[in-house]
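Structure in, sequence out. Go:
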């Protein structure tokens, strides 16, 4: 029965991928019109050479971690060009994590609804941005429409050598290197040298006082990722908490989405230890506050990995890695943090199968916890 379900899922995925490819080809045919500018294949010193006074970044995918990492770009551009206007397009769920970023002049909320996309693009068109930067290697049809309607003077993209709407192109991404290497290439094309690739998050210490926590005297454990394959089940949550209790003599703060509240409270009840506590966080900014002042963070979720990196908090990061696989996500989106240790959950499976993070090696986990205690 399991084999049948797996085969059906595989067929459904292939049909979905095929239909998506067809939609993208039709969308590109209809929307990828030539701009009035000459395509520049090897751009250098773009800001000075093309008199760029304003840049609009597209981070419309709703990925919090990606947006946190992108704060490198905003800061480094403002360092050299303090009067240059920087705007960013993000989803509503990302807004508050960058709301107080001093290097952003405008933040626009992107909705997937066509009516809202057209409305926002009309607004941006009136503001006459000089350069739009989109770092997605693959565009959805609505993103194509949005870019074309914004009517920025120049557009910059990645792997867009065969596109008419993009004037500047970053030819390739090396997925064997960290995302900040891509940012280095982009900043270099803009005419900016960069040595500081740290991330910026502005947050308060309200959660610390609200929950009567002492700075650097508690551990944050987030058991959940973006899917069930990236999330720990109840039994493994309990195992990990037991190990943390044995190895680190501090309060353990469990965090997770509201729908996991009952599950985590059940775990705490079974553990019968007052040092273990569940804190419901209403937003990623509240998560950032808890992470910032923690002694150690344990997480399989990359957005929290990047939050820990922003504050250089000691972190135990749990990534999935296919043996002999082509997916290098664990390298490209790895922690930019000298105080981070990584555990890889490795399996030799086919490209269309998912690694279940619950196959974690718990002996290795204990060894890594011993290592981070020394940091």
């Amino acid at each position: 029965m399991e084999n049948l379900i797996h085969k059906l899922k595989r067929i459904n995925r292939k049909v979905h991928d095929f239909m998506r490819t067809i939609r993208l080809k039709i969308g590109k045919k209809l929307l990828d019109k030539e701009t009035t500018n000459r395509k520049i294949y090897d751009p250098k010193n773009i800001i000075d050479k093309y008199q760029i006074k304003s840049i609009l970044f597209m981070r419309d995918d709703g990925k919090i971690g990606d947006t946190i990492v992108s704060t490198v770009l905003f800061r480094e551009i403002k360092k050299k060009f303090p009067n240059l206007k920087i705007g960013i397009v993000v989803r509503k769920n990302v807004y508050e994590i960058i709301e107080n970023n001093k290097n952003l002049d405008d933040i626009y909320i992107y909705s997937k609804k066509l009516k809202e996309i057209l409305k926002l693009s009309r607004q941006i068109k009136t503001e006459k941005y000089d350069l739009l930067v989109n770092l997605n290697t693959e565009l959805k049809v609505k993103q194509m429409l949005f870019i074309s309607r914004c009517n920025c003077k120049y557009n910059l993209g990645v792997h867009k050598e065969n596109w008419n709407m993009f004037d500047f192109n970053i030819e390739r991404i090396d997925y064997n290197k960290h995302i900040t290497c891509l940012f280095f290439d982009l900043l270099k094309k803009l005419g900016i040298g960069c040595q500081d690739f740290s991330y910026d998050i502005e947050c308060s210490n309200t959660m610390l006082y609200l929950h009567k926590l002492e700075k650097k005297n508690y551990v944050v454990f987030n058991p959940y990722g973006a899917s069930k394959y990236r999330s720990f089940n109840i039994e493994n949550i309990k195992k990990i908490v037991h190990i943390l209790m044995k190895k680190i003599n501090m309060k353990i703060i469990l965090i997770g989405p509201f729908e996991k509240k009952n599950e985590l409270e059940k775990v705490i009840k079974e553990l019968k230890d007052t040092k273990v506590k569940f804190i419901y966080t209403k937003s990623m900014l509240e998560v950032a506050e808890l992470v910032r002042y923690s002694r150690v963070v344990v997480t399989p979720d990359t957005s929290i990995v990047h939050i820990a990196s922003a504050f250089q908090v000691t972190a135990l990061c749990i990534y999935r890695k296919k043996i002999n696989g082509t997916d290098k996500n664990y390298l490209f989106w790895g922690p930019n943090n000298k105080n981070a240790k990584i555990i890889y959950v490795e399996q030799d499976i086919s490209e269309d199968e998912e690694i279940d993070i619950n196959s974690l090696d718990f002996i290795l986990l204990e060894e890594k916890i011993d290592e981070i205690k020394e940091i």
